Please model this.
Amino acid sequence: MDKISRRGFLKITGIAGAAMVMASGCVRKSDETEEVPKGQMTYRQLYGSPDRVSILGYGCMRWPVIPAPDGDGEQIDQETVNRLVDYAIEHGVNYFDTAPVYVQGWSEKSTGIALKRHPREKIFIATKLSNFSDHSREGSMAMYRQSFTNLQTDYIDYYLLHSLGSSMDEFRSRYIDNGMLEFLLEERKAGRIRHLGWSFHGKKEVFDQILALHDKYHWDFVQIQLNYLDWRHASGRNVDAEYLYGELERRQIPVVIMEPLLGGRLSNVPDRIAARLKEQDPESSVASWAFRFAGSPKGVMCVLSGMTYMEHLQDNIRTYSPLRPLTQDDLDFLEETARQMSEYPTIPCNDCKYCMPCPYGIDIPAILLHYNKCVNEGNLSVSSMDENYREARKAFLIGYDRSVPKLRQASHCIGCGQCVPHCPQSIKIPQELHRIDRYVEKLKQGTL
Model:
């Protein structure tokens, strides 16, 4: 099987998808006139740490892009990135999280360019050892050193072992057998790494085993997926966040939160859920409920958000300037909301793009997200006998062709499975693509 080249992938699709976040319901209607507060950001300083970290952290996985000057694909819009970073820092954000694999490998460099324009001591930089494909010491060392070059810094504040949880064998291969963890511990002693931790997607037993190494390695922080849906209703291989957070809080290990919006799914919620949230608090955005939930636990140091657009950044600044922690009534309300959401047959895709590029050019995230969008909008008809079948059929098919070019649709999936090991949510991607393709064919033929 000939793998599509990175340049070829970008020529077909660009990297615009890496910067797209579903915006529906994400911001307040009054954004154009409502003032964005300055000097009111909430900060956390946990368990004796000298760092005073903004509870809102900038996740740099979804930087905006523009067409490349030569017309071949797209590139990160550095001017807009600079403007977003400047605005964030001006409004109190001081934590920036990137990785060598974000935005097709360009995020670290772009983030470094933007942050270099600000005093280094005023910001906290987080990046990761994303040695997924090359576990060798040589390859891992090269990735580690390149991060310093890309970020234009001589120390990294928060360094993570990236996306642990598949198995202890993988953990040992990536970090123990090659001596990389021992090396990183020495780097921490030397001050080139100020805090060493890890991010988690995976199995409960693996989480427990790595966490048990705290006495040996002293994990300075851990990054987990936490939101009001995953708190007690985690799907796929994800572990309920209530358990993960509880174990970390018990050991007084600071927690960094990723996926507070589940890749946008908690801002682009089903219409009935959006109405429920708006009825409870008409002045707040749908997204703000998720951010308040993620920031309310006392052991949370920082909540990451991939803010591609200025309106997202502004809305999140309002939510955290200052944070209004949720009351018990609020928590009970969100638990019932989560229970209702868990009944919708959405696919747990967070639009992280780890499955991309597909060797056959299929736009996996776009397909799954369109399907979820139609679930949320009630445009998945069960039968041609349904009263709204014709409208739902039209909405799905037209939206599908607009969202995903025909050559990149699910019908082209051969089931190679190359994408499956890379999915943090353990989605059985080929099965889902084949299921969606069968559904599309039935809609086209009118045989549902």
Remarks:
- The CA atoms of residues 59 and 368 lie 22 Å apart.
